[in-house]
Amino acid sequence: MRIEEELKLDFQDVLIRPKRSTLTSRSEVDISREFVFRHSGRSYTGVPIFAANMDTVGTFEMARALARHGMATALHKHYAEDALAAFFIALPAGATVFYSMGITSEDYEKFRRVEARCGGAITMVCVDVANGYTKAFVDFLHKLRGAYPKITIMAGNVVTGEMAEELILDGADIVKVGIGPGSVCTTRKMTGVGYPQLSAIIECADAAHGLGGLICADGGCTSAGDLAKAFGGGADFVMLGGMLAGHDECMGEVIERDGERKMRFYGMSSRAAMDLHSGGVAHYRASEGKEVLLDCRGPVEATVQEILGGVRSACTYVGARKLKELSKRTTFVRVARQLNEVFGQS
To answer: What is the mean pLDDT of the chain?
Structure first.
């Protein structure tokens, strides 16, 4: 046993210090990014914010809505093969949508069948597991990269620099970063395992960038300001679940409660998810997610505008004309309190 004494930070522990700016309007800020991926060699241009591959968020409908803003979606892995093939075949050229999978042999064979039917339409894959530190995960990444050298692979989740480096060297173009920060994730409570998300982003970004790789901050964002902090900490992409949940484009069950419409939202390691997709919680494990009821929020368009507007505004406060400049112009200030909540939270 050992103890790390160095302070680790989460989004609520810091604010971004403003700096002199020559920008006169938020409209002058370019929040798109351009990348060439290390292994696939493919290029990417778009707003680097993804919808998470949760079955209530990572939907075909969400993908179509976010694509209008140059944003991407990691589809959930539970769609049927026919539906996936039809969606990718009809996908416009250049749209950035991730096919998602786990690391079982069934996941791999399903992907092989769908990919063969799509004629090269699948260009990006998200390999998603709760624990990216296992040998089985690394072995699967090797296998996938060897079979599909031209596909862009996002893989995770991890939270430490040395494992981010390993995944980049093993074939990942993008490393997904985050263990336990999600709004409906209870991994930290059930296992005691995790890492403060902002420090995980900073450390993994430094490690990945040194090898020409990229990272995606996955989980923990509750506001546009948190996205700005993630980008300021070095994240190349940010993935959102709870912030996009509850909208018309989601697939959560709608329930009437006290005369109000509510939508179910749950973690993918929750009992609700395992009951739906895996026949219940296996005898050797426990649920590591929870289920909540959210107010139905209508179309996602207004929320997207709020998110993108907040990120643009953050850039103006530090004089970043482009999103890629934000991390270079970010100084974090440690704080004991974020907000004045005398009238409650909003």
So the answer is: 92
Q: Which residues are catalytic?
A: 185
Angle at alpha carbon of residue 15, lines to 10 and 20, rounded to 5°: 145
* Amino acid at the residue 176: K
- Alpha-carbon distance values, 196 to 10, 279, 333 (Å): 5, 32, 16
Report how far apart, in Å, the C-alpha atoms of 161 and of each of 132, 139, 208, 328, 331 are. Answer: 12, 19, 7, 20, 21
Instruction: Flag whether the pTM goes above 0.90.
Output: yes
Angle 204-206-209 from CA coordinates, rounded to 5°:
100
pLDDT at 201: 98
Question: What amino acid is encoded at 338 in this protein?
Answer: Q
Interior/surface letters 128-158, b for 16+ CB within 10 angstroms, e for the rest: bbbebbeeebbebbeebbeebeebbbbbbbb
Q: Which residues contact 337 (CB under 8 A, 6 or more apart)?
A: none
Q: Is 265 helix (H, G, I), strand (E, B) or coil?
A: strand
The SS3 of residue 262 is strand
Q: pLDDT by residue (tens digit) across 111-136? A: 999 999 998 899 999 999 999 999 99
* C-alpha 16: how far from chain center: 22
Q: Name the pLDDT band for 39 (thresholds 50, 70, 90).
A: very high
Contact yes or no for 265/294 (Cβ under 8 A): yes
Distance, first Cα to last Cα, the chain:
42
